[in-house]
Amino acid sequence: MVLYTRMSKIILFAIVLQLIALNSVQTTVVNSCNKNLLLPNTTISINSLVCSETPCTCIPGCPFKLHLEFDSPRYLEHFKPDIIATYAGIKLDYPLGQDDGCDGLLNTQCPIVENEPIKYEVTMNVLSFFPEVTVSLNFTLQDLDADEPVVCILFDINVKKMNCPA
């Protein structure tokens, strides 16, 4: 009977640990562009594989997702994602294919009220002509009404020509 009770406790403990692991959100370490702006919880994933530290390996032709979670610092009605890629001192506006930030909202819709929890996601593709280099990316959610950023993060990616992970 004692063995059965001990075994039950061990199984229960293992189940609790698995539930904790399943509910923990993996994030990617990124930097803020501006100390006055909030730094959202950020997850960068390539085919559902989370990159925990930058530089993240990105593969031409393989989409990668940028997922942000934050509380809105103010009322937002019109905002837009922008990304600037920098390599060897050359800056390039990178096309995201999402002109309206409201399209990337996962848990709510526009307009957003102040302090509302936000889950935002955008999918990006590294174009096939990119060489194997490390690129710095500056990602901003720009409030179009106030003409100022809401969120701004900096992170690096390594472009590698290889097969997309399954």
From TrEMBL:
Family, per entry: Belongs to the NPC2 family.
Organism (species): Rhynchophorus ferrugineus
Residues in MD-2-related lipid-recognition domain copies: 30-157
Main localization category: secreted
Gene Ontology, cellular component aspect: extracellular region
Highest rank taxon of the organism: Eukaryota
Record's protein name: MD-2-related lipid-recognition domain-containing protein
Cited InterPro entries: Ig_E-set, ML_dom
Protein's UniProt keywords contain Transmembrane helix: no
Signal peptide residues on this chain, from the entry's feature table: 1-27
Entry's localization field: Secreted
Key word Acyltransferase present: no
Keywords, alphabetical: Secreted, Signal
